[in-house]
Design brief:
Elements lengths: L6 E3 L4 H11 L3 E4 L5 H6 L7 E4 L9 E4 L2 E5 L6 H4 L1 H6 L1 H7 L5 H6 L2 H7 L5 H8 L3 E6 L2 E6 L17 E8 L6 E7 L9 E10 L2 E10 L6 E2 L1 H7 L6 H14 L10 H24 L5
Parallel strand pairs: 1-3, 2-3
Antiparallel strand pairs: 4-5, 5-8, 6-7, 6-8, 9-10, 10-11, 11-12
Helix pairs in contact: 7-8, 9-10, 10-11
The structure holds flavin-adenine dinucleotide.
Flavin-adenine dinucleotide binds next to strand 2, helix 2, helix 7, helix 8 and strand 8.
Length: about 290
Amino acid sequence: MKPAPFGYLKPASIDEALEMLQEHGDDAKIIAGGQSLMPLLNMRLARPGVLIDINGLSDLTDISEQDSRLHIGAICRQRRMDDHALISTRLPILTAAARLISHPQIRSRGTIVGSVVHGDPSAELPAIALALDAELSIKSTKGERALPVRELYQGYYMTAVAAEELVTEIRLPIPTAGTGWSIQEISRRHGDFALAGVVAFVTLQGADIGDCTLVFYGLGESALRLESAEQLLRGQRPGKDSFRAVAQEVSSQLTPDDDVHASAQYRCALAHELTIRALEEAVDRATAGGEL
Ligand SMILES: Cc1cc2nc3c(=O)[nH]c(=O)nc-3n(C[C@H](O)[C@H](O)[C@H](O)COP(=O)(O)OP(=O)(O)OC[C@H]3O[C@@H](n4cnc5c(N)ncnc54)[C@H](O)[C@@H]3O)c2cc1C
């Protein structure tokens, strides 16, 4: 199919983009990489009257480190997760995630911020952003605000970003030295969206788990943090028994839907196994002082 007719605007500055968003409101859609939006337009699942193309806003391409966070601009492409030195040294989980996101052609156009704002429930970047307690910087003609990613998702593809707002950057906290991490998923073919996935961060206190964060994707309406499972792990000695107890809690708490790709029961079984794998890998990395 072809998209329904739409107008096309290409602002030359952030202020111009904000004016356009204010003028067109609900009738407009921002296009960044277009790798989620174009399929929706082609299938006529979205029918905006106007597309506002932000690819000319060269101020929004940067990656920088400030205040122990990586600041990533709104049109920074996902391929930078493969090749940018700051990302591979400060947030290597993004480099690992890049290998799970589709194929190089998609990552060459798709943006990091676009993926987080789009909020596909099976996408890797929303889960990582949630696990890191990242924050979005958002602008409109009325001013600027910061929105924690934990307040972003409000249901299937529903977010707290208003129609007249532009997300200008994401700020991802860099984990403290010695934090172990893991991203694990199962998809039918390499590059497909995940049937189920988990992001884990772990710090040790002596021989025990000091703190941990567990976020799941492909298993609900959006990326989902399970604090009850994290709580079970804190203060425990890492090992098969404690990991199995957490995995049991995970599979009992998650309530995914059946769909054409997998049954809810199968997704829960995957979440159980992936939780154990993620905790093993994150603890190995934490034991090695975050150097693996
Ligand atoms: C074949 C294929 C396979 C894929 N596989 C995967 C996969 O395995 N894992 C995965 O995570 N993703 C996958 N994707 C999606 C891809 O990662 C997209 O690039 C990403 O989801 C959206 O980023 P984008 O820059 O292309 O956003 P767009 O498609 O341009 O926009 C997506 C939505 O976000 C909004 N938006 C974008 N930027 C902003 C902004 N700055 N401010 C406010 N709103 C904004 C748009 O209005 C739109 O509603 C796949 C895509 C394709 C086509």
